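Let's practice the habit of predicting before peeking. Look at the sequence and jot down your guess about where helices and strands might fall. Then scroll down.
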Amino acid sequence: MVHPIIAKKEVTRYILTTFGLRAKKKLGQNFLVGEELVNKIAAQAELKPEDTVLEIGPGIGTLTQALAETGATVKAVELDTNLIPVLAKTLEGYDNIHVVNADILKTDIKALVGNKPFALVANLPYYITTPIIFALLEQKLPLTKLVMMVQKEVAERLVAEPGSKDYGSLTIDLQYYMDTKIAIQVPASSFIPAPKVDSAVVVCTPRPKALVKVKEEVFFPVVKAAFSVRRKMLSNALRNIGLNGEQVQAWLEEAGIDGKRRGETLTIQEYATLSNVYEKMFIKK
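Done guessing? Here is the structure:
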């Protein structure tokens, strides 16, 4: 069966017109176009026919189709109920695609993918990018690759280096688990309708082991506290973990870190030191 290429602009426009579809602003919808671009994004997942890939937000099936063409088993989770019959038509004839109408934040992902390793590909709505990333990390999923199209500004945060304006708690949380890189720049003109900002595709590869040796239940709250008040000195920001000024000063001195520094200047290794000293000093055994 020959399938029309959904990523072609004229095919996308035909689908939108035929089904009377308009992008829903509240769901952050913009429809991706460009056959070459879509194939490049799908290629980042490095899929083989025996693999499983989970797609978040398939829309009208543009990227879903490219993923299916690799031969891999595609599980696609779509929140918008109105798009389910559209996907049934646009992806008709593919027996390796399973579309689920659900909220990804309320989905048992491990069960959906059959409790086995999988790649995840997503064109994430801008308004919910951060909650989805945090939710994916917290679930400790058996990911082989994470390929995300996000707002360019968010992409720069995900790959940021210490000392840059984009470096923050989201950067550290993701890089603790994964090696990150921006793989593809995506101009606003690649969407119908064109958003006001450009996007980028970030590829995240799970590390064989976490970047630093810490107790995660201590490490992540320490990082969160350090960034709780942007551009404030650590000696002030770290009080938000529940300590007074004297305790914070003693903690910083023991860790060998200058309290006048700001959270965005510390490396992940320095945060590990802070976390381990905090555990030693303030957590009862």
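How did you do? The mean pLDDT is 92.
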